[in-house]
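batch job 7 of whatever, protein = 39205_t:CDS:1
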Amino acid sequence: MKNANFPKTDDGRVYYIGLKRGEVANRILVVEDPESARKMADLLDRTPKPFIFESNKGFFTITGRYKNVPVSIVSIIMV
């Protein structure tokens, strides 16, 4: 780990959320669970196809466009 304040994996993914540069938008909607994120994702533009990623730490992210504006929908289940 090179930076304890902003830890990243060897492949450049931010620890915990598992995302790297370009996989998350500046506008983020936070929801309670992955099912809510999937329902909201139905409202996203069909093209380009939304990016979907589930980290091994419980974060679920969908990044796409809504009316051509980049947006990410993020949920987390803490157990």
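notes: The chain has a mean pLDDT of 90.
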